[in-house]
Design brief:
178 residues, mainly beta, Porin, nine-stranded antiparallel β-sheet, 3 helices, elongated, DUF3575 domain-containing protein
């Protein structure tokens, strides 16, 4: 193992001003309500996560492409303005994990994996057609590969959703088409 990799894991080095991190998920969804509180649908998307540390000349780019199915159940309704819902999704993901460094020898990796998760959504009606939501992503998750976008262990896992929300918050808007 290269000793420079141990330097990379040093928390003081990662807190340095030479560090840059950016992440983004775009996930268009189409949902159809089967009952007043229950919907099903499909989604596709792309997720990006970039990390760079100039002090040790290290850069990592993760690109994740995915397609899947979801179901959502709305179990709390407060005056038709605020809703709480649970969402269950399952999908196929393709992950490109690319590294560049002049001092650390790490190979790029490309993987296809299956992932499923249970989420908690807080929905706010902006008007009759638009909804804003905040998502606590992956309260419980399952993946068949340790090499995945969020770094989850293989198998079923309970996750710290508050920590996930703080480090990679997910917000969105929904438009009612008909």
């Amino acid at each position: 193992m290269n000793s420079n990799l141990a330097d990379f894991e040093d928390p003081f080095l990662l807190a340095d001003e030479n560090r840059r991190n950016f992440g983004l998920i775009l996930q268009p969804k189409f949902q159809v309500f089967l009952k007043d509180q229950f919907s099903v649908g499909f989604h596709l998307g792309v997720a990006l996560d970039e990390f760079e540390n100039k002090q040790i000349d290290f850069q990592q780019n993760k690109n994740n492409y995915f397609v899947g199915l979801q179901t959502e159940y709305y179990f709390v309704n407060v005056k038709n303005i605020f809703y709480i819902s649970s969402e269950l999704d399952a999908g196929i993901h393709y992950l490109e994990n690319k590294f560049s460094s002049s001092s650390i020898g790490i190979n790029n990796s490309y993987r296809t994996y299956f992932k499923s998760g249970l989420h908690l959504n807080f929905n706010f009606m902006l008007n009759d057609d638009w909804v804003f939501y905040a998502k606590f992503y992956d309260l419980v998750s399952y993946t068949n590969s340790e090499n995945n976008f969020f770094g989850y262990d293989e198998g079923i896992q309970l996750n710290n959703s508050l920590d996930n929300f703080i480090s990679f918050p997910q917000f969105g808007v929904m438009l009612k088409l008909f």
